[in-house]
Amino acid sequence: MHSTHLQPEELSAVRIIYQDIVSQAWFNQTEEARSSFARYLIDTYSISSITSERFRKIVECSARTHYSRKI
To answer: Would you tell me the crossing angle of helices 8-22 and 52-66 to the nearest 10 degrees?
Structure first.
């Protein structure tokens, strides 16, 4: 099992990505979607050993797939 304890600088990096993605017009703004996406980010970041840039690309792709507004 992996740890979800993030260091302050890691949490800050995840928070910036979270805020940027949930502020996009396509992101579903329900509390459920925002909360689920936050958990996904923390879980994904804690098992990942990739650069922040690559991490952001991966989670944005996932967010567009799973958390986009239904038009």
So the answer is: 40
Which residues are bridge partners to 68 per DSSP? 27
Looking at residue 1, its pLDDT comes to 42
**Taking the CB of residue 55, how many other CB atoms lie within 10 A of it?**
18
Residue pair 33/27 in contact (Cβ under 8 Å)? The answer is yes
Q: CA 8: distance to chain centroid?
A: 16
CB-CB contact of 67 with 36 (8 Å) = yes
pLDDT (tens digit per residue) in 11-34:
888 999 999 999 999 999 999 999
Distance of CA 66 to the CA centre of its chain: 11
**CB-CB neighbours of 36 under 10 Å:** 14
